[in-house]
Amino acid sequence: MYVRPTAADRRSDEEARRRKTARHIAEFDASLERLSLTDLNASHTRSVVKDRPDDELVVALFSAGGFLAVLYGVAALVDYLRKAGVGPASLTSAALMALGGLLAVGGVEWALWLLRTRTRVGGDNASHRLIHLIVETVIACAEAHRTPERQRASRLRTLDLHHRSVERCLLRSHRSRGSMVFASPRRAVARRHTAAVAGALRTDLCRLDVEPDKALVDLAGKLVRISERYAEGRLGSLLPHEELEGIQPVSSRRRTLWESAHMVLVLLAALIGAAAAATWGSVWGLPESAEHLAMVLGALVGATLTGGWRMASRLKELFIG
């Protein structure tokens, strides 16, 4: 039963959010002090962290939607087994139905998460995601820096994971920032620059195995400057060009391989969606023509949830005519 929060509840939640934000900013400032980077300007970064929207409503919608979908799937599966009996064929159909239900639930929640964090629909959560990731990475740099070298292995592994998230978001910044239209010629310039910036960050990351203390300070310093310039909308000047001379940009080969693997995943999701739709169509007793239409719709839904509409629309290239 839904209980509408009172004004006192909202004030309490807002105060708790402010305390959490204040602790996060204090941790970020302490990290800069630990790394001797207090001379760097990080005012825009602090402002973004301070004004970060609350995600509790989104989490609640995810939880409620997932619970209802799983509950419906279990009820439908139980009803089908009760009517059809338990045999090898029935168990196979039940397994396909369960798999289709799990893929649908996971696909919907993943699509909502992508919309919230990767597109303009997510608002500030999406456009400022790079800044929040950078703050977490700077804190991870400080944690590794203050840890004795013999006990630093786990901290460095954590830093690797943070860097991977930052790099992925950085290479998408021309889209996530929301300041360029799709056909803008500025996008190509921004992509080339962010590829070089990502290469500079990789260079500092690889120096962790040569001169770890200095590399941690240099990496954190670059990240803070990138965060400030990103907040200012300077996507073509995240780092000074003189710092990028001789830097090998991040190769697009990995991106090409990822897009190929993504296309295979989309095709697999389309096949599973079609199989699930065919199973449900036979259970509901749909005529053959309607069952074929359900298979097409199931394939389209599976492909769209996995790769988005643009990737799903490319599936037609696989079919003759």
Describe this structure in words.
- This protein has 321 residues and is mainly α.
- Among the domains are: 27-52 and 128-244; 253-318.
- It is 75% helix and 0% strand.
- The chain has 12 helices and no strands.
- The radius of gyration is 24 Å and the shape is globular.
- The relative contact order is 0.10.
- The model has no long low-confidence stretch (mean pLDDT 77).
Can you give me a brief rundown of this structure?
This protein has 321 residues and is mainly alpha-helical. It contains 12 helices and no strands.
Mean model confidence by pLDDT: 77
Shape: globular
If helices are DSSP runs of H or I spanning 4 or more residues, what is the number of helices?
A: 12
Q: What class do helices, strands and sheet pairing give? A: mainly alpha
Radius of gyration, Cα only, in angstroms? 24 Å
Helix fraction, binned, reads over 70%
Low-pLDDT stretches are: none
H/E element sequence: HHHHHHHHHHHH
Q: Please report the total strand number as a whole number.
A: 0
Work out the strand percent.
under 5%
Distance between the termini: 53 Å
Task: Present the secondary structure layout.
Elements: H1 7-34, H2 43-50, H3 56-84, H4 88-118, H5 124-127, H6 129-146, H7 153-171, H8 173-176, H9 186-206, H10 212-231, H11 253-284, H12 288-313
